[in-house]
Design goal:
Elements: H1 9-37, E1 39-46, E2 49-60, E3 69-85, E4 89-94, E5 96-105, E6 111-113, E7 118-121, E8 126-129, E9 133-135, E10 139-150, E11 160-162, E12 174-183, E13 186-191, H2 194-217, E14 227-240, E15 251-265, H3 266-278, E16 285-287, E17 296-303, E18 308-321, H4 323-327, H5 338-346, E19 351-359, E20 373-379
Parallel strand pairs: 1-20, 2-3
Antiparallel strand pairs: 1-19, 2-18, 3-15, 4-13, 5-10, 5-12, 6-9, 7-8, 7-11, 8-10, 11-12, 14-15, 16-18, 17-18
């Protein structure tokens, strides 16, 4: 005998309760998973706020722990140097051509030629001998000559020369043949100029500074990370063995100078300047580290007796929002969409670009836990 099956009310109740528990558990697990494993990364690009500045720095041999005084070395010394230099400027000098003419004697007797004997070409170019010579009979002699007039004489290598001073009957038997030029009628010569003097003085000054700096470094009482030196020189005396305008292949200069050097550690100066600038920063900003190679130094004053110097340092100082300050913004960014995050930072001065990424890919809002939000700050190039 069969009876119809009827579900017991208690069993149905527990079944619904179990199902509800499972659903709630899954929802809680999903919520915990969503909250725990959701992340957001916000990349902010900052514009550098840069301005030109000058900072005064005091350097002294002995600081005595005085505030704002950095240790360095200040040295004064007299030095001298000598150098020989070649002029760079040249000019054309018109002069008398010089060379040699071979005199031929076809007679049976020797022929004496006194100094300044004339030799005339067919074209009318006149030379004179520069020394006494005797032309042997039936022979020849190569004799030095100089042109009678200044300037170029042209090509006379195969020219025939007569000797106007000889008896006309001998002029066909004793004559000159060919001119070998040793020095032309226009000569290129070097002239000592003011530019040459200035150049020589500059090179000697440079060599003295290099020598002075080498000696000064041996007297440093400290070991710098990056030694910097500011040198000044005063000319005490200067002499040149050739006057301006003189024609010469070379000239010699002597110079005596008083050299003063201020030597210091660039990193110590950089650190000091950064400390000075950091005190002037508004709240929430940090200093962009200085580029040590971009610092420009000038010597403003020096007290040789007190062994102290004052430098002016020219630099470009930059500031930006500090990463720590921007990290405080995380609490205001929980549960925001990408557009809301971008809108939030767009109102902040100095931010040029905002890029937001969510993880995992299905996440559409920033996490509810602020420490799951990463803010990365990078500087604009």
């Amino acid at each position: 005998m069969f009876f119809p099956h009827k579900e017991q009310p208690r069993t149905k109740f527990y079944s619904k309760l179990a199902t509800s528990f499972i659903v709630i558990s899954l929802i809680l697990v999903a919520a915990v998973f969503y909250i725990t494993f959701s992340w957001a990364t916000i990349v902010l690009t900052q514009q550098k706020q840069v301005q030109e500045r000058t900072v005064t720095v005091r350097i002294a041999d002995v600081t005595n722990d005085e505030q704002g005084v950095l240790q360095g070395k200040i040295i004064t010394q007299e030095m001298d140097a000598q150098g020989t230099y070649s002029p760079k400027e040249s000019t054309s000098l018109v002069q008398k051509s010089q060379g040699f003419i071979t005199v031929i004697n076809s007679t049976q007797k020797p022929q004496a030629l006194r100094k300044t004997t004339r030799l005339l070409s067919v074209d009318g170019v006149l030379f004179r001998t520069t020394e006494f010579a005797t032309i042997p009979p039936k022979g020849s002699f190569r004799i030095p000559v100089v042109a009678d007039e200044e300037g170029e004489v042209g090509s006379l290598s195969s020219a025939r020369f007569t000797l106007p001073g000889l008896w006309p009957g001998l002029q066909n038997s004793i004559y000159g043949q060919g001119f070998e030029q040793a020095e032309g009628g226009v000569k290129r010569v070097y002239v000592v100029s003011q530019n040459d003097i200035d150049r020589a003085a500059g090179e000697l000054d440079t060599s003295l500074q290099e020598k002075f700096l080498t000696l000064a470094q041996t007297q440093l009482p400290f070991k710098p990370q990056a030694l910097k030196s500011i040198l000044s020189s005063k000319v005490l005396s200067q002499s040149v063995d050739k006057p301006i305008g003189a024609t010469a292949e070379s000239f010699t200069m002597n110079i005596k100078e008083q050299l003063t050097g201020v030597l210091f550690d660039q990193y110590a100066v950089k650190t000091y300047i950064e400390q000075v600038l950091a005190k002037e920063l508004p709240s929430g900003y940090q200093l962009i580290p200085l580029d040590i190679d971009s610092l420009e130094y000038s010597l403003e004053d020096i007290d040789r007796q007190a062994v102290k110097a004052i430098l002016t340092v020219r630099l470009k100082s930059g500031q930006m929002k500090s990463a720590e300050y921007l990290s405080l913004e995380k609490r205001a960014l929980t549960g925001k969409t990408i557009n809301q995050v971008v809108s939030y930072f767009q109102d902040m001065p100095g931010i040029s670009n905002i890029h937001v990424r969510f993880y995992p890919f299905w996440v559409t809002r920033t996490p509810l836990l602020h420490d799951h939000i990463n803010i990365i700050v990078q500087n604009e190039e």
